[in-house]
Model the fold of this input.
Amino acid sequence: MYLVFFIVGVGFIALSVIFDAFFDGPGSPIAILQPKLIAAFLTVTGGIGLILNIRWGTGSGDLLVLTISVLSGLFIAALLNRLVIIPLKRAQNTSAFDKQATIGTIAKIISPIPQGGYGKISYNISGSTVTSPAKSEDGGEIKNGEHVNIVYIEGGTYFVRKQEA
Done:
């Protein structure tokens, strides 16, 4: 039984990694049903059960082996969730932003935009200062230190318009 848990857990980890790589799925919002945690639980439960059965022999204390294995699996899955998955989700949520959401934002020119050329802007979003390549919407010159509005984004370049005085 523990060998099956262990093999299914390892297989589940492999499938979870493959599917996450291809589909980049967020997983289940219910923490206990996340594929990574299920895989960790099955792998640890199976591994601990195998080790204890080899050490103590089958038939002697089967209920004790099952209890220790299941508790170990739950403990490691909870630890993985608390120390790895939750902090990673928090970091992902705070540092990522949608570029399209910056349209209409006020930015400052930090590298002048020559007529028909490119410069650089700086703006704040989600408490972070971000710099990006920029071009004047009308192709005109914009001097260093001027404030602009982000009008649209195309191919990673922010098109900006001078702010009306």
